[in-house]
Design goal:
This protein has twelve helices and 45 strands. The chain is of the alpha+beta class. The strands form nine sheets. Strands 9-8-18-6-7-12-13-16-14-15-17-10-11 form a 13-stranded mixed beta sheet. β10 and β11 form a beta hairpin. The radius of gyration is 41 Å and the shape is elongated. It starts with a helix and ends with a helix.
């Protein structure tokens, strides 16, 4: 059975592929399809199409082969009055023991009351109907469907005093005098009748209300009233508006009467379930009755339809609309054309517009979920639905019997995708995934569970199997060679159209793409990059390295799609800091006026720091505080030296006491531990609150023993504050401090 169904899936995919040109008069030219198996004879296919005159269209199809485990049934709410949404009707069916695989909305109905306009038969029970002409679709016990033109079910109550024709069952009673029959399946509350009328309460003695059969009843009460009356389980109520008449007088309390039903359709009499529908739109494989269609239904909108193919497959279709981003809907003529394109020889229109809804349980999911985008924003409550149910009792044995992939995998050619296997038991419910799942593909390459897409556009059917357990199946990966849009977004999802990068800086470009508004899995390596105006380079993995400055563009391409971003490469303050690890620290200090270059265009970041310049930069970093008049504290500082005021401040603040004999040694090169000590003594000037760290904190560095005694606590304290860090496990206290290292330490302290 599984092999036969796989062939059917393949045929369905081929049909969709082959009808692309023909579909142009329906939903448009097919651009994307994804088909999933729901049972051995039921598939679900999501299709995206494009029409140049309309735009994007999206459809959702359930296709049932009558020979198999799944079948179609009709069902409404537990009561006829008031509508029900698709999730609730699925829940009710599940509670009744049905294994629901999918559902789609069916008959037209009264928005005010939720009562269907046509007939409804559930599990053989005649639930609602009348003599108003309405088409119907019936589902027979053998799994096939019959499409019926205005079938009639007649109801007659035979009494000892004459027969009474009953034209309406579980419909809203209107004035006119015709009798209406109500059962407890109409409403849990009452007959919902208004105005004066007469009533006959009938007790059910035997039989079941079907399209062809009889029910034995006892007249238990006759009365008149103004308004509604309860029905009650095990009873029926016959009523008509107006005053008592000859019909009313035929019912005598205590008498036994017989309700006989008959139909002019043998198919309806044999139907397991049936539901009303709209106009026939296809017969004999051709569009029919177009001039008779209701004008309001012809217009472009979401649509729902059901049809049958020449080999008996049942095709239920939902078409989205009223959403210019995703779908614009179809006209009734386009719907008919689309059903023909899908192989239907007969098809009828179902309720559309805001009522269009389809729910499907994809393999691996525990319950069906809504798949389309209802135009009301949420699924509308409707009178009746067509459900696709599996014969296997809900709840399999838990062991994996079928393997597939999660539906909807879309990947850009050349990109990689982590395959997500799905295992289901005999009921199509989630099962434990075998530990040795394997994959085979003829179009892509697979390493473990990592799929790398080839260059060929379209559906790749991937075999999924378990060597140990024997479970197997197929999944689909849709490979996109030519995305319709490329995006480059920031962290908040906003489109990036301009980029500013420092000279020598690097920026990882992470483009994404979509295909007719479907998200596509991709990596930067699947795109190509073109840099214009010599502003830098982009590596194959999307890493942009900026040049020395200027304006230009980067063009990102995949297939025929492209995305252009404008780039400004800012020139550095200092030419010798391009690509230097400390450029950010240096430019920050320069902006604050703390440091200056050795020339107008150079900073010499790796040059050793002189003692005089370090004190000057400390002085600037704390805001150049005013100091009292003081003679030059150091004898080796020339009068009027550019750093004289800074040296005096450092002396007064206790930061620099000199090297002895009132000498500062201003031209001396500063070692790292000397710089640590100066900076430690200046922490109070920066307003940093700290505690002296224990000297053994530096034991984490292999050369900690080289730290001079005077510098042990300063070094440990700066390490604890995160101001100082080592390199390769060393702190190199005796090494000369570079101007770049100075910039980093000052920046960290300023941030405190």
């Amino acid at each position: 059975m599984r092999k036969r169904f796989i062939a059917a899936v393949t045929a369905a995919v081929l049909i969709i592929s082959l009808v692309c040109a023909a579909s142009a008069v329906g939903i448009g030219n097919v651009r994307y399809t994804a088909t999933a198996e729901l049972s051995d004879n039921l598939t679900y296919t999501n299709t995206v199409a494009w029409r140049e005159d309309i735009g994007r269209e999206e459809t959702y199809e359930l296709r049932l082969n009558p020979s198999g485990a799944a079948r179609a049934i009709a069902m409404g709410d537990s009561t006829v009055y008031e509508a029900v949404d698709i999730a609730d009707v699925i829940s009710q069916a599940t509670a009744l023991g049905y294994n629901v695989l999918g559902a789609i909305n069916a008959d037209f109905f009264s928005i005010q009351t939720g009562v269907p306009l046509g007939l409804l038969i559930e599990d053989g029970r005649y639930k609602s109907g009348g003599d108003t002409p309405a088409n119907a679709v019936a589902f027979l016990p053998d799994g096939t469907a019959r499409f019926l033109k205005t079938p009639q079910i007649t109801m007659t109550i035979q009494t000892p005093n004459g027969d009474v024709a009953v034209p309406q069952l579980n419909k809203m009673r209107y004035n006119g005098g015709d009798p209406y029959l109500f059962t407890s399946e109409f409403s849990e509350v009452s007959t919902r009748t208004t105005g004066e009328g007469w009533f006959v309460r009938l007790k059910i003695l035997g039989g079941e209300l079907t399209a062809r059969g009889e029910v034995t009843l006892e007249v238990v009460e006759t009365f008149t009233g103004d308004g509604a009356v309860p029905v009650g389980d095990g009873f029926m109520v016959l009523t008509a508006s107006g005053a008592p008449n000859d019909t009313y007088n035929r019912f005598i309390v205590g008498q036994t009467v017989t309700l006989r039903t008959d139909t002019d359709s043998d198919a309806l009499a044999a139907a397991q379930s049936a539901v009303g529908c709209g106009d026939f739109i296809v017969e004999g494989g051709e569009v029919v009755g177009e001039d008779m269609w209701e004008a309001a239904l012809k217009a472009r909108s979401p649509k729902t339809a059901i049809g049958v193919t020449a080999n008996g497959e049942i095709v239920a279709l939902a078409v989205d609309g009223r959403n210019t981003t995703y779908a614009n809907g179809v006209t009734l003529r386009e719907l008919a054309d689309e059903m023909i394109a899908r192989g239907c020889v007969t098809a009828v229109n179902l309720d559309g517009g805001g009522s269009t809804a389809i729910s499907v349980r994809i393999l691996g999911d525990d319950a069906p979920t809504i798949r389309n985008r209802p135009s009301d924003g949420t699924p509308r409550r409707c009178a009746s639905y067509i459900l696709f149910v599996g014969e296997t009792p809900r709840g399999g044995n838990g062991a994996a019997s079928y393997l597939t992939l999660r539906q909807g995998a879309i990947v850009l050619a050349g990109s990689v995708l982590e395959l997500t296997p799905v295992a289901t038991d005999a009921a199509g419910l989630p099962a434990a995934i075998p530990s040795d799942v394997r994959y085979r593909s003829s179009r892509g390459t697979i390493d473990g569970a990592v799929y790398t897409a080839g260059t060929e556009h379209g559906v790749d059917r991937v075999e999924v199997y378990s060597p140990s357990g024997g479970a197997s199946g197929y999944g689909e990966v849709f490979v996109v060679a030519n995305p319709t849009s490329i995006y480059l977004n920031d962290a908040g999802g906003a489109a990036v159209k301009t980029i500013t990068v420092d000279a020598g800086g690097r920026l990882q470009l992470t483009p994404t793409c979509s295909y007719y508004r479907l998200s596509v899995t991709s990596q930067p390596t699947a795109f190509t990059y073109e840099v214009e105006d010599d502003i830098g380079t982009v590596s194959p993995d999307g890493l942009f390295t900026a040049g020395n400055g200027g304006d230009g563009r980067i063009v990102i391409r995949a297939g025929t799609a492209s995305y252009t971003v404008s780039v400004t490469v800012t020139k550095p303050l200092f030419e010798d800091c391009v690509n230097h690890w400390a450029v950010g620290y240096i430019e920050k200090l320069a902006a604050l006026g703390v440091v200056r270059g050795v020339t107008d265009t150079t900073f010499a970041p790796d040059k050793s720091m002189l003692r005089r310049d370090f004190l000057l930069m400390l002085y600037r970093a704390v805001g150049e505080p005013e100091i009292p008049e003081l003679a030059n504290p150091f004898t080796d500082i020339p009068a009027g030296a550019y750093y004289q005021k800074a040296a005096s401040w450092a002396y007064i603040a206790g930061i620099a006491q000199g090297v002895g004999d009132n000498r500062l040694d201003p031209d001396g090169v500063l070692t790292r531990e000397q710089a640590f000590t100066f900076l430690y003594r200046a922490l109070g000037q920066f307003g940093v609150h700290y505690y002296d760290a224990p000297p053994d904190l530096t034991a984490q560095f292999s050369d900690s023993a080289d730290v001079s005694e005077y510098a042990k606590i300063p070094t440990a304290t700066l390490v604890a504050l995160g101001v100082v860090g080592g390199s390769d496990g060393k702190i190199t206290p005796k090494n000369e401090l570079t101007r770049a290292q100075m910039a980093k330490m000052l920046c960290v302290i300023i941030e405190y």
